Amino acid sequence: RKEVEQDPGPFNVPEGATVAFNCTYSNSASQSFFWYRQDCRKEPKLLMSVYSSGNEDGRFTAQLNRASQYISLLIRDSKLSDSATYLCVVKRGFKTIFGAGTRLFVKA
Amino acid sequence: DGGITQSPKYLFRKEGQNVTLSCEQNLNHDAMYWYRQDPGQGLRLIYYSQIVNDFQKGDIAEGYSVSREKKESFPLTVTSAQKNPTAFYLCASRNRPDRENQPQHFGDGTRLSIL
User: Fold this and answer.
1) Contacts of B71 (CB under 8 A, 6+ apart)
2) Is A16 in contact with A76 (CB distance < 8 Å)?
3) Tens of pLDDT along chain B (115 residues)?
4) CA B69 from chain center: how many Å?
5) How does pLDDT run across A69-96, given as a tens digit for each residue?
6) Closest Cα in chain B, distance from residue A51 (Å)
7) CA distance B24 to chain A (A)
8) Searching chain A, which residue's CA lies closest to the CA of residue B97?
9) E strands, chain B, in order
10) Tens digit of pLDDT for each residue in A31-82?
């Protein structure tokens, strides 16, 4: 079993839709959590950190549930430019573990 | 502008050849990392270094070697022992790896292919 698991998708949604991605992690000692965005054939870029209190950045909302070892990302009012792969990332000590990513396609 | 520079962007390797991928950062970050990404797959850690003159094997270090003689530089050599080197190689760095909530930042990658 992978330490960080994501639904690979793809998620195909129309513009303006709300879409949610989930991620689970298996090691309860994990300390920090992030969502990265990766465009096709490009490097991953930090989208946002994830906190237990939940955090929002414009149309993006991230949530962490430590008890369930579960992280989520919600995208509201999807844009064509949101089409990408979203990576769930967990940090534990000096180690960073990347999920395999969830692919999102937003269609006009 | 501060950032991470990887070169070359594309690299071709002949059978039996060693090739070196460059990674330079001017962010004054302590830790540097090398990952490999295969199509449709997540990132897998090859090597990492938390301080100068020290580095550790990651999950898939076989067939690779690194050095960290300077804080800003962390070159990766893909040796002839790596039988399946075709992949997208990503270098990353992080400030204060001991601190929580310090994300990694990535260079724009090197695509390596076998001739």
Assistant:
1) B28, B30, B52
2) no
3) 669 999 999 999 888 899 999 999 999 999 999 999 998 788 999 999 999 999 999 999 999 999 999 999 999 999 988 989 999 999 999 987 677 678 899 999 999 998 8
4) 15
5) 999 999 999 999 999 999 999 998 878 8
6) 9
7) 15
8) A94
9) 4-7, 10-13, 19-25, 31-37, 43-51, 54-57, 64-66, 76-78, 87-94, 105-106, 110-114
10) 899 999 999 989 999 999 998 888 999 999 999 999 999 999 999 999 999 9
Q: Answer yes or no: do B101 and A32 touch at CB < 8 A.
A: yes
Contacts of B33 in chain A (CB under 8 A): 96
- Those residues of chain B whose CB sits closer than 8 Å to some CB in chain A are 31, 33, 35, 40-43, 45, 48, 50, 88, 90, 94, 97-98, 100-109, 111
A37 to chain B, closest Cα gap in Å: 12
For residue B8, say if its preceding peptide bond is cis, omega within 30 degrees of 0: yes
Q: In what order do the strands lie in the sheet with A4-6?
A: A4-6, A19-25, A70-75, A60-65, A55-57
* Pick among B54, B98, B104 to test the A interface (most A CBs inside 10 A): B104
